[in-house]
Amino acid sequence: MTNNEIISKLLQGTDEIHEVTIQDGKEEVTVQLRPLTSGELTKIKSIEKEPYKMEIGVNTQGKRTSAKQIEKNTDTNMAVGMGEFTESQANAIYTAVAWSMRVGDTNITPEIVENFRKGVPEQIFNHVIDISNLTEDDLTVIKQFR
Length: 146
Prior knowledge:
Order of helices and strands: HEEHEHEHHH
Number of helices: 6
Strand content: 15-25%
Strand order of the largest sheet: 1-2
Helix content: 40-55%
Largest sheet: 2 strands, antiparallel
Number of strands: 4
Distance between the termini: 38 Å
Low-confidence stretches: none
């Protein structure tokens, strides 16, 4: 198999359409989804990690220092706002659902998904996890759904 054939085969993942059923209020609705791509997953990971802020201060006191001295004199602080953390996880879910629902000429945005009825984005996200073969190593938010 040539590289071009391999690339074509690997790109077909986005053409792999899954029909899933969700509960929308009192009725069942069928939604078409596709697996997320590697690049999309990388961007979603970035969205999820946005509230994590790490500050590293190095105190060298104007002198040459060895690696051990730097390690000894380094202050590390990490701050995470819980509200920001919750919002970033929700944004990761909305983005994953929107991108997975981009089937054919449908162009859905995370802002549209954000306005779905309560619980609907999470139902769809469960299916996105399954069809994209995502794990807790991929996204932290998956822990809520497993």
